Here is the input.
Amino acid sequence: MSRQAVVKTDSTIEEAERDEALRPRRLCEIIGQKAVVERLKIVLNSCRKNKEPLSHILFDGPPGLGKTTFATVLPNELGTSLQMTSGPALTNPRDMMPFLTNLEEGSILFIDEIHRLPRVVEEFLYPAMEDFRIDIVLGEGIHARTISMPLKRFTLVGATTRSGMLSSPMRDRFKMHEHLEFYSVEELAEIIQVNARKWKSEITEEAALELAKRSRGTPRVAINRHWWARQYAISEADGKITLDVARRALAMYEVDDKGLDKQDRRYLEVLLDVFGGGPTGVDALSATLNLPADTLSDEIEPYLLREQFIVRTPRGREATRRAFEHMGRKITSAKASGQKELFD
Ligand code: ADP
Here is the structure.
């Protein structure tokens, strides 16, 4: 689902529609995340055999790795219905009522960005998750009374980019907690090939691998790079994405050989040139970049951390030797200069 899209622009709506059309419908269509898929098969099987609703499941990981995809596959596997909402859309327990009263036995309620649920809504959900009932207060003051309303037995699926921000009572109410990892180049190339068939567009194996290599380990990024390469191939070539077409398309999109885009490089530039490589706090970086701190820590930094362009220290973010070298800067930080060569 969209990341922080509170205001939906035309391009985010278009992107959402594109995601929707490409999204795997069944567990067997999901590429990668093997361990998660295997564990889900077990719980799906046991709940079918026991005729019990699926236990509540929390998915966490950076944006675009497949949290919504997993959530939408589950009801298809179980033959139940799905309702979708997100943390920021639920400001008051009242906002939960339409979803809770529409539940069917065994159906799935998906809450994206669940770490952004206000505390009152979270607390309202505890008895719903635990005992399938909600407590409603009627009247006010001394005449107020609480009635308990039973609910259909349902499954709550939560998704978060920040499991650390979830309160521990909330976290504890999820029986399963699945962390999604970045994808390998081969897995992303396979996703690109599958999507090319859905789009009825041609791409060579080398071109799919090249796009995959430069997609930050993330299916949504791979889809975006692939989509752009396809536009480029139609406009500037005969429609087929070859290695050469893919490289030219990526160069025009300003994606470098390590898969970093303009925004990633701007982050590194600020860290290196303004803050001398750090360490520096995320708030200082966010002010200079004029981007929300959440965007930095949820969208930009996870991949830079994984690829060791930056490290997190108790004093803030710090550039590694790899970052200085990749950006063609003289190494100024003592720590980075002490690091051994990180390039292959
Ligand atoms: P998230 O909810 O984590 O932000 P999504 O589930 O919306 O990510 O994934 C973005 C897009 O990437 C989906 O529309 C889907 O087409 C594709 N995708 C994600 N994970 C997979 C996967 N494991 N296999 C195939 N496609 C995937």
